[in-house]
Amino acid sequence: MTKAVLVIPAYNEGACIDSSIRRVYQVMQRVDMAFEIVVIDDGSQDETWAHICALSQLLCEVTGLRLSRNFGKEQAICAGLEYADGDLVILLDADMQHPPELIPKMIECWKLEDADIVEAVKVSRGSESFLSKMFAHVFYAVMGRLSGFDFSGASDYKLLDRKVLEAWRSLGERNVFFRAMSAWVGFERKQIAFEVAEREVGESKWSKWALLGLAVKGVTAFSTAPLRLISLSGAVFFVFALGVAANTMYQYWMGEAVTGFSTVILLLLITSSLVMLALGVIGEYVARIYEEVKGRPRYIVSQTTDGLSQIK
User: Of 108, 183, 255, 257, which residue is 20 to 30 A from 294 by alpha carbon distance?
Assistant: First the structure.
């Protein structure tokens, strides 16, 4: 019989994780398919793990993985996808901003339209602030231009066929950005629009700095364009420098005094800024290489509800 595995990463979601899992469970009971709900506790500091353990005792379809510390959502997703054992995997958030009532439609699309990946695409970004919406729009526009993939309305709410899951597992990099990686593997995909729901309780665990860090990781992991931009900037500034040099030589041969102390200071400031910016960009790529070369595991599982542990 066909089996679906639902992967739900959670961090400090103790206030809503119980109701969220029960809601997903109720939806899956209406689907004619065997299922398992895998909840990954990403090193929560509240009662999230206690709720997961309690539910796993009541509902045999619920399995919990507890990471040894907070590794981050991307790594928690990795843990769930590498643990999942089913004909299809559905990834959704624990805060229920990804409405589980959309799951039957996603499964139907997978069955009837031969879709290997069914993506739930955001119609709007809900009640996010204007600044957050602008940041997301600019980031995905830049990522789309640099990587060649369409990220408009992108979310982690996806259904993956077994062969897509196996292809994703073959990607061994430590710097993980699930949305881009799932786009990179290709395969036949369909999209389903959805409205981002309000959080049931609490607030987002993503700070502005964390989102910025994820954006930098995403760009540096999937494009070398920033490095090429440094070369382009250097070429443009070199042409500008040649023009300034030609003007200086012309004034010298015409017997005119070479003036412009302010111009010299301005040029020094511009070149210094460009050099520091270039070093920063190169540093980001070196940091990615450093992390990959170390070969540390993406995450460490300290506990599971069935008493097992694993390292990936």
Answer: 183
Q: What is the pLDDT of residues 179-222, one digit of tens each?
A: 777 777 778 788 787 777 666 665 555 555 666 666 666 666 66
CATH number, span 3-222+297-304 = 3.90.550.10
In the chain, the percentage of residues whose pLDDT exceeds 70 is 71
Q: Which long-range contacts (CB under 8 A, 24 or more apart) does 189-192 make?
A: 189/115, 189/116, 189/117, 189/118, 189/119, 190/109, 190/113, 190/115, 190/117, 190/118, 190/119, 191/118, 191/119, 191/120, 191/121, 192/102, 192/105, 192/106, 192/109, 192/118, 192/119, 192/120, 192/121
What count of other Cβ atoms lies within 10 Å of the Cβ of residue 191?
14
DSSP, res 311: B
pTM of the model: 0.69
Task: Output the DSSP codes for 37-88.
Answer: EEEEE-S-SSSHHHHHHHHHHH-TTEEEEEESS---HHHHHHHHHHH--SSE
Domain ranges of the chain: 3-222+297-304, 225-294
